[in-house]
Amino acid sequence: MMTRLPRLSNFIVALALASALLPLLPHAAQEASAAASTPAPPRDAIVIAQWNAENFYDTEDDPDTSGDDSFSSGGWAHWTEARYRLKLTNVAEIVSAMKPDILCIEEVENLRVLQDLQEVLSATFQWPMEFVVHKDSRDPRALDCAMISRIKPGKVKWLNAAPGLHASPCAEFKIDGATLTVIGNHWKSRTGNAKISAAKREVQADKVREEYLRRLEADPAAAIVVTGDFNDSIGDRVPLDCAMFRTNITEVLEGGDSLFCLSALLPEDGRGTFFYSQNKKWHSFDTINVSRGLLPEGKPASPWAVDFTTYRIYVEDRMRMGEYGVPYPMRRDREKGEPYFLLGYSDHFPLVVTLRRRR
Ligand SMILES: [Ca+2]
Ligand SMILES: [Ca+2]
Question: For FRET with 203, which of 20, 27, 74, 352 sits at 20 to 30 Å CA-CA?
Fold first, then answer.
């Protein structure tokens, strides 16, 4: 059992603070947020972040799906407007600290949640991210894989591996005449039968590989970033051998038809983004993977190079809890039959990296 840090009193204080600091921002105030946006992002660096935001639902019941029912009024999760607002603030606070130009975000219920997040980012944290890449994927849990960005996306396509799996947004960003392709992912979770869930992830991996290979064949220098929550760790069969997210940089530099998994740069015991409480093990489910052209020594070179020193799992002390320092989530839980609420962020840690324009 994970140690429970927050107590009821903390919860009340946090909630009171949240409601005092956060007047309910009307959903429709997008013009205001657009007007407040800053000029184009700096072109010499592009920051990319990845985060599975865990059950990022609004509080309204979507009558077209039962996927959000437990997070709707009267549902099991006791998800209230105040808690939703606090989640928006918590997520926005961390995102604004990472300062991404492009954020790939998973487990978001709908466009409204993304718009609310944009509004809080802009109004409360002065980090406007005015563009959205989103599509309702008809997921059984009503959760989508999306992007928000400070750079206007060009062509967007959705990689649908199979019905019932999260579609992966594949967005092209035209920056100073060069194209950066970013693919966000949320592969099938490991719940249920292990073989069946791995087979589903394999189909998703094949779809992503097909897409990036096509781009590399057209342009061997193509700048491609593939990120997400893959529900498999570095070196597991599906990411390593199906998606070809390689951990050996030489292989990528020489072959050019695979991607380099940046988490291979981190120490082996420092790659975990998710902690499985049943077996008390860390998993590196979230990674950022890049094409050869983006590697500092990659040839042919893309217009940008990954700055290896910037790649990290973004964690602040407040994002951890318990003796293992695991991701501090925001959710209803129970201890000895007593329900309580954890008022953190997500059960995953985010990742961030900077690409620098080559000179
Ligand atoms: Ca809802
Ligand atoms: Ca519903």
Answer: 352
CA of 28 from ligand 2 middle (Å) equals: 22
Q: What is the mean pLDDT of residues 168-172?
A: 98
Residues with a beta carbon under 5 angstroms from ion ligand 2: 61-62, 68-69
Residue 3 has which token pair? 């140690």
Total-model pTM: 0.88
Q: What mean pLDDT value characterizes the chain?
A: 91
Ligand 2 centre from 88 Cα, in Å? 21
What integer is the mean pLDDT of 148-169? 96
Instruction: Write the DSSP string, 310-331.
Output: EEEE---GGGEETTTTEE--EE
Residue 40 lies in a domain: no
> Tokens 């709707």, residue?
72
Answer whether residue 195 is part of any domain. Answer: yes
**CATH code of the domain containing 194:** 3.60.10.10
Closest ligand to Cα 136: 1
Domain span at residue 339 reads 45-357
